[in-house]
């Protein structure tokens, strides 16, 4: 038994090394005073200074964050309402809605990007901020639905019935009972949509236009011209931000879970 546990830990450690070694390698060379990744030339913050002096890159970072925050927020609202609507349906309609929701999840990004490009072209929508924002909202909604729906299924129907018995209106039951109870799923959906939007490349590449770009598209364009350690510095900062989001989500979900357990215990004592 001990031997199996040792092999399992060894395998897990190997997986983490394979996943994080390239990232660590990239981060180390972001502090190199050289201009290539062939050899480390000594510690320097020059590439970070060049990054913050690059006005185009700063603008692109702002564009990327703005699109990610807005698309995630709108997708979370629509996805949460969609999950509540799916919960109210039954039978064939429910299965059909779930299948339609999963289409964007299982479809290749290239197909989705090309479809959005054709759609915007037919409607005459100019490619740029609006097209990227709408595309990110569209592929983020199914993610939110899949994160929120399990929390709705876990919600006790007697809790909602008790709210109605106490004279609560439909809006009061939704805002004071249902939404607080499923808030961990809503937060999870928002963070997942945010991370998907920040690092999306394939869909964004199709629907972005002249004068507007996101980090993933810009990094791809610059990488084709040759390795620039300014990209390493940018990638390092993005990794730190992503790590901070994951840690923040962990503590938020942990606090929400603890609060939910307290509510459950109080309900059990009351009964």
Automatic annotation (TrEMBL):
Membrane topology of this protein: Multi-pass membrane protein
Intracellular or extracellular location(s): Cell membrane
CDD domains: TM_PBP2
Pfam families (UniProt xref): BPD_transp_1 (PF00528)
Membrane-spanning segments: 12-31, 60-86, 98-123, 129-149, 177-198, 231-252
Keywords: Cell membrane, Membrane, Transmembrane, Transmembrane helix, Transport
Originating organism: Limosilactobacillus urinaemulieris
Membership in a protein family: Belongs to the binding-protein-dependent transport system permease family. CysTW subfamily.
UniProt xrefs under InterPro entries: Bact_Polyamine_Transport (IPR051789), MetI-like (IPR000515), MetI-like_sf (IPR035906)
Superkingdom per UniProt: Bacteria
Protein name (Swiss-Prot/TrEMBL): ABC transporter permease
PANTHER family per the UniProt record, alphabetical: PUTRESCINE TRANSPORT SYSTEM PERMEASE PROTEIN POTI (PTHR43848:SF2)
ABC transmembrane type-1 domain boundaries: 61-249
């Amino acid at each position: 038994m001990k031997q199996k546990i040792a092999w399992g830990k060894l395998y897990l450690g190997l997986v983490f090394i394979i996943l994080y070694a390239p990232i660590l390698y990239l981060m180390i060379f972001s502090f190199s005073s050289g201009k290539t990744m062939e050899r480390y030339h000594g510690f320097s913050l020059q590439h970070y200074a060049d990054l913050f002096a690059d006005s185009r890159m700063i603008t692109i970072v702002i564009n990327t964050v703005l699109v990610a925050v807005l698309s995630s927020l709108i997708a979370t609202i629509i996805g949460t309402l969609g999950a509540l609507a799916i919960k109210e349906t039954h039978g064939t309609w429910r299965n059909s809605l779930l299948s339609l929701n999963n289409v964007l999840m299982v479809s290749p990004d290239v197909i989705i990007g090309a479809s959005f490009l054709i759609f915007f072209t037919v409607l005459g929508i100019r490619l740029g901020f609006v097209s990227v924002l709408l595309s990110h909202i569209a592929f983020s909604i199914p993610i939110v639905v899949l994160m929120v729906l399990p929390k709705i299924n876990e919600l006790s129907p007697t809790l909602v019935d008790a709210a109605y018995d106490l004279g609560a209106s439909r809006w009061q039951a939704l805002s004071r009972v249902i939404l607080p109870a499923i808030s961990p799923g809503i937060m999870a959906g928002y963070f997942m949509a945010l991370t998907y939007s920040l690092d999306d490349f394939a869909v964004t590449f199709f629907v972005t236009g002249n004068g507007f770009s996101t980090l993933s598209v810009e990094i791809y364009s610059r990488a084709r011209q040759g390795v620039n350690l300014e990209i390493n510095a940018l990638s390092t900062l993005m990794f730190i931000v992503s790590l901070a989001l994951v840690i923040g989500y962990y503590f938020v979900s942990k606090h929400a879970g603890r609060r939910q357990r307290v509510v459950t215990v109080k309900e059990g004592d009351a009964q």
